[in-house]
Each structure stands twice: as structure tokens, then as C-alpha cells.
Write a structure and sequence with these properties.
This protein has helices spanning 13-21, 25-28, 32-42, 46-52, 57-78, 86-98, 103-113, 119-136, 144-165, 173-198, 200-215. The protein is mostly helical. It starts with 12 loop residues before the first helix and ends in a 22-residue tail after the last helix.
Length: 237
């Protein structure tokens, strides 16, 4: 058993394997070959590595994605978002989720989760990221908006990742602009939605859907923070 020196923290063996795997993903993808190479690098046997990632590359790709989701709140806390409008905060947090990622690891992960067997799991991971982004922003919705916001952002984030993977602009400036455009598209939709709900006839037409959405409850109460519906509804965003 390894003795941990004072002031030293023992790294999670899954994280240790993931870090080693990132050195090989570009060549072998998220595969058993990559897991084997990573196991050799950290000095454990393949059976031990398989115990940590039973499905091999698939579980490593999933673990990498979820680890990046977990790290997002730390990035947001370190960022200065106080002077940004709400829509700008959403755009910035989307960028923070991308910033620092291993692009080849993401590309290879998308290849894994585009396979029919794993497509459903891939969709859940995108939802997880949308949830992480809203939670990092302090989303306080508890009704149907909880689902609508994550569904909308899942579509935005998926398109942003695809754009980012092909972006060769300095500092990914084209991706930053693309994020702003996508947020702008959603904001325009929100303005139309608000206008419809503000019109007596529109309110009548939407009374049924709005009532149903008001009856839907979020699975858990998200952290308290910034109010608003989809992208800053009710904010000056």
C-alpha cells in the first residue's frame, strides 16, 4: 500500500489512467489499445485497468467527458462574469466548457458515441454538459423550463462542438463568434415567444402548452442563482 506523504494527495486511479490515455488517444482512439498503453504507463496490469473501465475505450471516453463537466464549476468560479449581460454569461460558460479540452480526444469520443450502440449514451452526455453549464450559472428553474433550457442548450452545444473541431482560426476566435451567433438565434426566438405570450390572441393559443409546462417539475432543485427562463428571460440579456 502506497504511503501518502504529508501535504500530498493521492490521485484517483481513474483520473491517473485517463491522463495517461490522453497521450495515446490521437493514435489509437478510445480503445482497449489505448487503455493497455495507459495501464503500462502508470504501472498497473490490464485486468486492473479493466476493473476501472470495464468497457475499455467507451468508459474512458465517457469518464473524460464527465470529468470535464465536473471541472466546469471551478472554471466559472475563477472567471470574472460579473459585468456581463446574462446572454454573454451563457456564451462565456459554453466557451469555458470547451477551453482546454484535448481536441483529438473529443473528436475520437464523438466517433465512439455516434455508433448506433452508444448514440443514446452520447445524447445523455450532451445533456449532462448542458446541465453542468446551467448549474454553473446558478439556474434556479424548477418547472418545465428546467427541461426546456437544457434541451435548447444541448442543441446549441452540439453545434458549437462540431464547429470548434474544424476551427483553425487563431485562438478559436471563429468559434467564439459562432457561439455568439447561436445564442443570438435563441434570444431572437425568445423575443418572438414573449411577443406571442404578450398578445391576447397569442396568450389564448398558448394557454394550454403554457399550463402543461407550468405543471412539469424538475427532478431536483438546481442551485439558486441567476433567474430567468431559456437564455435570460426576465434578465437584461
Amino acid at each position: 500500500m502506497k504511503v501518502v506523504a504529508k501535504g500530498e494527495t493521492m490521485q484517483d486511479p481513474r483520473d491517473k489512467l485517463l491522463d495517461a490515455a490522453l497521450m495515446h488517444v490521437a493514435f489509437d482512439g478510445w480503445s482497449d489499445a489505448t487503455l493497455g498503453q495507459a495501464a503500462r504507463d502508470v504501472g498497473i496490469s490490464m485486468p486492473e485497468a479493466k476493473a476501472l473501465f470495464p468497457r475499455g475505450g467507451v468508459d474512458m471516453a465517457k469518464a473524460y467527458h464527465l470529468r470535464c463537466d465536473r471541472e466546469l464549476s471551478t472554471k466559472v468560479k475563477a472567471a470574472d462574469l460579473a459585468d456581463l449581460r446574462y446572454s454573454e454569461k451563457v456564451a462565456e460558460v459554453i466557451w469555458l466548457r470547451l477551453d482546454g479540452l484535448d481536441r483529438e480526444a473529443v473528436r475520437r469520443g464523438m466517433a465512439v458515441f455516434s455508433l448506433p450502440f452508444y448514440a443514446g449514451e452520447g445524447a445523455k452526455l450532451v445533456w449532462s454538459t448542458a446541465d453542468a453549464i446551467w448549474n454553473a450559472l446558478g439556474d434556479s428553474s424548477t418547472d418545465g423550463n428546467w427541461y426546456t433550457k437544457r434541451m435548447t442548450l444541448s442543441g446549441v452545444y452540439s453545434s458549437v462542438v462540431l464547429y470548434w473541431l474544424g476551427d483553425s482560426s487563431p485562438g478559436y476566435s471563429a468559434t467564439r463568434d459562432f457561439i455568439d451567433r447561436r445564442i443570438g438565434d435563441v434570444m431572437r426566438f425568445q423575443k418572438v415567444k414573449s411577443a406571442v405570450n404578450g398578445n391576447p390572441l397569442g396568450r389564448l393559443m398558448m394557454s394550454g402548452p403554457n399550463f402543461l409546462m407550468s405543471r412539469v417539475q424538475a427532478p431536483v432543485r438546481p442551485p439558486q442563482g441567476f433567474p430567468g427562463a431559456i437564455f435570460g428571460e426576465g434578465e437584461n440579456g
